[in-house]
User: Fold this.
Amino acid sequence: QSVLTQPPSVSGAPGQKVTISCTGSSSNIGTGYAVYWYQQLPGAAPKLLIYDDTKRPSGVPDRFSGSKSGTSASLAITGLQAGDEADYYCQSFDSRLSGSVFGGGTKLTVL
Amino acid sequence: EVQLVESGGGLVQPGKSLRLSCATSGFTFDDYAMHWVRQSPGKGLEWVSGINWNSVSIGYADPVKDRFTISRDSATNSLYLQMNRLREEDTALYYCAKAGGMSRHHYGMDVWGQGTAVTVSS
Assistant:
């Protein structure tokens, strides 16, 4: 059972928008610790997609966006492309555990 | 170019030890926190351990606490993970990851290595 909760899977047609939720608690996201999102393509290492809740590293398309409210965060992907098929993970820091925590991951399928 | 290269993985019997290394280049190692993250076959990412830039703040996930030890060496720009009393459930691909800043608390992981595989089996 992961400290951060994500839906196991989401899907959408090319060009559509999908949203992946990440639910935490008062000891992590709710405390104000930043949320990070990672994309893991099949067979590859994870790649940072969103940092500090809403910021995109250089090179990440603006089709990817992050948001946060209370104890939850979300990753939105617009203009879905076949190349977006991957596993997506949220991550934050937990003050009670004094360690980083990941969500269980969400598998995105582009129909 | 920032690079992280893990090594030291392999097949080991339960109860034995293994030491993972992560050689870094392309950035000022002393200025950044570092992490180990693992991924069991077919499973999600699991944070294992993190260490601040100055080694003062160190943290471990509960499943590895008191068995694993993280350390860093500024002379060689390397990160290490000493794994003792290994269990079958420690079988995973172990990634080294660079934090975005000095603290392991306040930064995500902006660069990842390709991982080194650890298999614990008799």
The interface with chain A takes residues 35, 37, 44-47, 50, 59-62, 95, 97, 100, 104-115 of chain B (CB under 8 Å). The longest strand of chain B covers residues 18-25.
